[in-house]
Amino acid sequence: SQFPDIERIATRIALASVRPRELASLRDALQLLPAFEQHLQLLSGQSQAFATQLQSLAMDPALTQLLQQAIAPEPALLVRDGGVIADGYDAELDELRHLATDSGAFLLQLEARERERTGITNLKVEYNRVHGFFIEVSRAQADQVPTEYRRRQTLKNVERFITPELKEWEDKVLSAKERSLNREKALFDALLEQLAPYAAMLSVAAAALAEIDALASFAHHALANHWVAPELSDHPEIRIQAGRHPVVEHTIEHFIANGCELHDQQRLLMITGPNMGGKSTYMRQTALIALLARTGSFVPAEQAVIGPLDRIFTRIGAADDLAGGRSTFMMEMTEAAAILSAATEHSLVLMDEIGRGTSTYDGLSLAWAIAQRLLQHNRCLTLFATHYFELTRLADEQKAALNVHLAAAETKDGIAFLHEVREGPASRSYGIQVAQRAGIPAAVIHNASAELARLEQQHAHQPQLDLFSAAPASAPAPSLSAEQELALELQQALQSLDIDELSPRAALDLLYRWRQSYTV
Predict the structure, then answer these.
(1) Which residues contact 193 (CB under 8 A, 6 or more apart)?
(2) Separation of alpha carbons 375 and 181, rounded Å
(3) Domains in the chain: how many in total?
(4) What is the value of pTM for the model shown?
């Protein structure tokens, strides 16, 4: 943007702490305002909001004129560095600057005059930071200098002198810079006093520019990403058709759009499905669409109806607080407690795998009770993701709850995530398949599959338990022998090998390593 942070500059003007370059950027911005207002004038007939913003942007021409006259085109960062006040703003400052910077002409005149007077053709008028201004002649010609020359420095081949005229000039020039900086500081302080009454006007203009900037950003994204205008409802509801995540859809080639229905008769969606299936993305996109709609933006969906929202609560992710001595589970419960105490019927709540930080039955019990509390007491709109399949029974007891799942399918290569939200609970978790894709050793996957089969078979032969009843203990499944584990690991290594990219030397190296690793 060509406009600086005018609100910040206005505050610093009011506090008399603004810096020169900030005033220069404000001056440049005020010079752009007339052309900007002309463009805005074309839109004022279409919306009362633009007419109001036009009034807020009306600036006193005296402010722009003052900054143009007072501030240098490219001022220094700090007043103490000088070069802040523009030339022509103050006659005294201009004279001091002339003395400090335009001494070259006088020195050339003095040098020519002294050469002619003394007859010393190689006489020079010089300057250095240690000795200041001086007249330099060769040692062979030192006897030819006039009597008013006072020796300042003797070197091997030259003598350096000072004259009363040059000394007077030196005192004037060397003090001119200091006096120039002092004068500039006084002028800048006086300028800040003149600008102080304009701080309130600048704050109003900054707020109008911020609103225009936000609306322009909304319009840009709506056009570029094919967003639609949502319908704003007076009732607590979120109805989205073919919604998309505004960020994730730009990071992948083909994004699967999903809808969401939350209203008074359906206040909680119990979301199940495998890890990496898209549960968190689905929850986040719903919250983002609702937030965008209530801020006045178009939304990434085919159609959306969004009711009033007072807050959006999230309990997503896992993190601990080492400094505060709070575990991951304690953090989860603290956040859940805050949500249960503050959520209303106009709130949107996102709960992702609550209760996973403790034992299965403790976590399941808490998750069930929290979901039930959100439904019956808070009556908020809730997206509740879980891996506790027992929680899907909540929909059988509560009419306002509905089971949905993120679909996945098994293929010959493993598991394919479809990322589609479908009604009903998930059929299985696919945790072992996800672990296999993550690179867990084949022997571990084999043992896990055997244990899962044993547990599922045992569960099938047992009578249906109550939700929180404990199953009887059973012996673990037999583990693989060392030879079987080595064979599975070798099989996994062979399956992951890209033969087309393997050089003969690399193949020999692999065979050598495998002989060492997998020979019993």
Answers:
(1) 16
(2) 70
(3) 4
(4) 0.68
